[in-house]
Amino acid sequence: MIMRKILKDTCILAALMILAVFLISIIWSGVTDEIGLVLKLFGLAFILSVLNCLFDEYIYLSIVMNYVVKYFAITGIVMLFGFIVGWFYPNNFWMAFIYVGVVIILAYFIDSFRVKKDIEYINEQIAGRVITSANFAPEQTEA
Asked: What is the Cα–Cα distance from 136 to 142, expressed in whole angstroms?
């Protein structure tokens, strides 16, 4: 649990640091190609986070099917976004499948690890309650 919090806090802090440095750079020298790319990635990440949240709230599938559906939906959005901002062209659009695939695989393993830890925690809580309930159960008398 502590490692997950540290990783999450690190990612949030790194994102805030990048945005702060880029904001100062934008004020100082304008939007360069590198800064523009990172800002586009942040925009795409926001869109994909909203989509992911909608999927998690409104679509009920098995975990594997959920990832398969998300993979194709996210790949479609990445392709569309990539065509709009000029990342992909008709001859290299297939690269979106690779990029999204790598991210989805990493997300799947992180999610699986998190679910396993949550299951262990829930089982510990249930085991603790069963033992506590057994210790405080009223004694039954024979009639």
From this structure: 19
Summarize pLDDT for 111-123 with one digit per residue, the tens.
777 777 778 888 8
Domain carrying residue 18: 1-30
Of 32-36, 74-78, 128-132, minimum mean pLDDT range: 128-132
Domain shared by 68 and 19, yes or no: no
- DSSP sequence for 46-97: HHHHHHHHHHHHH----HHHHHHHHHHHHHHHHHHHHHHHTS--TTTTTHHH
Task: Return the CA Rg of the chain.
Answer: 23
pLDDT, tens digit (0-9, with 9 covering 90-100), for 45-55: 888 888 888 88
Same domain, 57 and 20: no
